[in-house]
Amino acid sequence: MDAIILQILNGLDKGSAYALIALGLTLIFGTLGVVNFAHGALFMIGAFCAVTLSKLFNLSFETLDPTKKDFLGNPLKVKTPYVQEWFGPDVGAWLIDWSVPLAILFSIPIMVAIGFVMERGLIKHFYKRPHADQILVTFGLAIVLQEIIKSNFGANPVPTPAPEVFRGSFDFGVLLGFDPNVIIYPYWRMVYFAFAAVIIGGVFAFLQFTTFGMVVRAGMADRATVGLLGINIDKRFTIMFGLAAAVAGLAGVMYAPINSPNYHMGMDFLVLSFVVVVVGGMGSLPGAVAAGFLLGILESFASMNEVKSVIPGIDQIIIYLVAIVILLARPRGLMGRKGVMED
């Protein structure tokens, strides 16, 4: 039972990332009808927003410390971060320690701006083009963004630690009545799941309970009719593209301490997240979220040694096997609209 609970927790962790990226993918497809293969790159850029802010906070200058001397008796050079010089030692140390959560505020305007530029500068020219053209151009854009990150940050992963208070592990099993040290789970992974739940809930609440969101949902269902009512639906869809980019970016920011950011992490998550979208149903927001958590949990269970000893390599292909089975039985996905992907 303890192993099952631990794998469910691991699955929720992976599923949170899948669901957040798939949510943004589905928002773009549902509003604009565009298959955006650059969406994984937005996740990567979000992670490197956290890296960038951490590096900025750690910029330092050297001074001579007369209280510390080398073996020859000369004062040693010490590095002092600029934020500690400007804001004081305590506040500066706090900013450095909490650079990842603070990168949420740092990344939102950056990701929204990138989303607007992508949509207005490139993707709007492919609205009426075949999906194959959309995939090719957005995949090419993803490669360009990936190489830009590689040239600026290098090819190696960049460790980006979580705040010190969240670097330990939590004895989750004690809460459920198990013996101590049976189910140990990292604090930050729990924070990530809670963060994902807040973001997902916020997006659904925005679409469900605001006038803007209601118009967008109406436009997703019947774009032409909404346009005839005198509403500039294209402008609203552009804003939704920026929102989708921000969601992907925030997912990347908070994932940075879990998996050190590297230039190909966007591609790693993109393929899996696109499978999640297809399984959940193209254009279905609830389907994307449900499929993200479902496939994350299945992948987690498939990675157990007991399972891999029976079916070697099953953890690498389980998501694709599930996708094949679901699409053969229900081509539009679990919650897809009738007629989508069924032609």
TrEMBL record:
It comes from the Bacteria. It is a multi-pass membrane protein. GO terms for cellular component: plasma membrane. Its main location: membrane. Pfam families: BPD_transp_2. Keywords: Amino-acid transport, Cell membrane, Membrane, Transmembrane, Transmembrane helix, Transport. It is found in: Cell membrane. The keyword Secreted does not apply. InterPro entries: ABC_transp_permease, BCAA_transport_permease. The keyword Transport applies. GO terms for biological process: amino acid transport. One of its GO terms (molecular function) is transmembrane transporter activity. The chain crosses the membrane at residues 16-35, 42-61, 98-118, 190-216, 237-258, 270-298, 310-329. Belongs to the binding-protein-dependent transport system permease family. LivHM subfamily. This is Branched-chain amino acid ABC transporter permease. It comes from Primorskyibacter flagellatus. The lineage of its organism: Bacteria, Pseudomonadati, Pseudomonadota, Alphaproteobacteria, Rhodobacterales.
